[in-house]
Amino acid sequence: MGGLPFQDATSALALPENGSKHNQVSSVTAPAPESKPKKKICCACPETKKLRDECIVEHGEDACSKWIEAHIKCLRAEGFNV
Length: 82
Hints:
Elements: H1 9-12, H2 46-59, H3 65-77
Helix pairs in contact: 2-3
Keywords: Chaperone, Copper, Disulfide bond, Metal-binding, Mitochondrion
Protein name: Cytochrome c oxidase copper chaperone 2
Binding site for Cu cation: 42-43
């Protein structure tokens, strides 16, 4: 079979020496991962979504801030960043 010539595996996997910068532990820690939502946003909070949508259809968005805010609060409780 044609291909690349075989190289010594130990040279390709060489580790840095003890005094190397790459071997030191960084003092900067990664931010804690946020909990990901378990559902898609379209499927979360169906009760508040239904009330919000019905209100907007019947009365317009300006008259439904109570339901819009309730739905946003529910989505945030489910882990969405809205």
